[in-house]
Design goal:
Chain lengths: ~350, ~350
Amino acid sequence: MNNQQITVKDIARILNLHHTTVSKALRNHPDIRQETKELVFTTAKELDYHPNSLAKSLRNRRSQTIGVIVPTIKNDFFSTVISGIEEVAYREDHNIIVCQSHETVEREILNVSSMVSNLVAGLLISVSQTTRSGDHFRIFEKRKIPLVFFDRVCEDITASKVVADDYQGAFEAVEHLIQSGRWTIAHFSGPETISVSRHRRKGYTDALLRNNLPVDDGWIIQGGFLEEDGSRAFQQVALRGKLPEAVFAVNDPVAIGAYHQIKRLGLRIPEDIALVGFGDNILSSYLNPPLTTVKQSPYELGKISAEIILEQIKNPSEMTNPREEIVKTHLIVRDSTQKTNKGAVE
Amino acid sequence: MNNQQITVKDIARILNLHHTTVSKALRNHPDIRQETKELVFTTAKELDYHPNSLAKSLRNRRSQTIGVIVPTIKNDFFSTVISGIEEVAYREDHNIIVCQSHETVEREILNVSSMVSNLVAGLLISVSQTTRSGDHFRIFEKRKIPLVFFDRVCEDITASKVVADDYQGAFEAVEHLIQSGRWTIAHFSGPETISVSRHRRKGYTDALLRNNLPVDDGWIIQGGFLEEDGSRAFQQVALRGKLPEAVFAVNDPVAIGAYHQIKRLGLRIPEDIALVGFGDNILSSYLNPPLTTVKQSPYELGKISAEIILEQIKNPSEMTNPREEIVKTHLIVRDSTQKTNKGAVE
DNA sequence: CTGAAAGCGCTAACAG
DNA sequence: CTGTTAGCGCTTTCAG
């Protein structure tokens, strides 16, 4: 027989100790004297002992695993956030278990349930586009499991939240457009259900107001987060006859969709239409002209989220004062809003 | 008290049943009569019962979790593979736990150990750049845990393997260059340790040989998988004075690095130098001219890998005959090798 | 069809 | 400093 795993009992039997002594030694408990510890450690190594985390977690009523739920992992932004989370979790001896909601609440609810079943030490989540109520998150409160929202947060739940400075980023982007002489600026907005969309939209309207420009809801086109939404939005605007001088898109994919549509209609960027995105997608710098955009820091965002949740895991009293972390954004001005003498990145 | 989780015992107490009966009912065991089952199901729902997967796994000596180790998740290719894996795993009621090796064996070994400790039902791995021996994978054989390599495989370990058709893809790419009249073709190769690099290189040399062209090792530049490796390689070639008519890069990032360097030197693509990559990175179509490349199917690759491992999990006897799945690639001809009347994607 | 007994591998609390 | 006892929540086996 072979697939038998080595346990503390095996080590104990060999050394003529009790298995609890071995357990303590392995965890470097002060009770045990150095000599014994060394003995235990070396034989553990010799036998290629792998502690059974499941048994430990069952006993401790909590695992060493952090759950992560994202709309999809097939996405620059989220995969980079996850990378940041994994990095921090790894340092603190935790694993991450990843699920995708695919933008549906139903799936998100199942994901949550699976996380609970797995006794995750904490959950990091960016909610789906279709998530309206946050009722399925109440169980974390009940079970006292730390919960942290990142990027797309759920406003009716009290929990720590880590987001990019969507409002400020949008504000600066639009102000930049205004400063460069554009007064009629359309906004291709994201789903109203998502906090991110609302904040960016607010940044847009506030920048207009601050500059004494009228806010015309006709210039706000509601849509999704995808490239096709951007194309569609620009088509819609173009059909009306009167074009804006600039477009501020809720994110880079939407801006890229608009970009293609603008080119298709034979218009020039930025001469006819200036264009700004959000997110600093890697593609943006490769467009011609390259896209002015707002840089977020997804890796940072992931790291901060992970740090907060680990803090709460180590120190449960932290859970009572939820933190709201806002990660700074930076406007990156490129040729889609301002002709410089530099060409596209080549 | 609140964070108390509901257990089968709680349900049993309420219904005046034994907890084992409840357990059986919950799993739809034929022993239990319909009436009882329904009773159990409804009260479970009422109490918001979440089964404890850890206890179940401990008892069954195997979890419902599939481990995934990749060099990094912050990468189009790998994040798409993972997305495919997650999708299939989800359908079969499994979770995935993701680790990054960051291209170091040391970390990979730790990751493996953590997977074993977590009693993963199986492991999917794409090995790190620095992994030479596969000794740390022997434990899976010993413990009879299914192991599947994808993309970057470990040749000295007997296990199922899922790879893109690197050889054929490279062969076709180089043949395409030859057909279009290029006879001196440089190859910017990846690390020799990695199977992917070796296969693509073999496809390159075989295509030359098949067409009665000489294989000159001087045209093969060894490097890594990154953009900077591509820049460096082209610089090296350029220094020699004699330029090749075409470059076949081991992957798209390397091709993109070469692309920048070529442009920087004032050379034209494809007139002076034709350029081919591998992987159909999203960026490739946005270059100017867009890059001819070999399309892999990372999502498919992930799905197939997951299907194989789930097959082996369900049916352990499958483990004795390891499968080798080769996913077809497709050459995508764009303007970096062939001037058409179409411009860049815009 | 339902129940009792036993144990997965680990750790906390307490006793010696 | 080491050992004993007990149990985390679940499932398997076997008895009723």
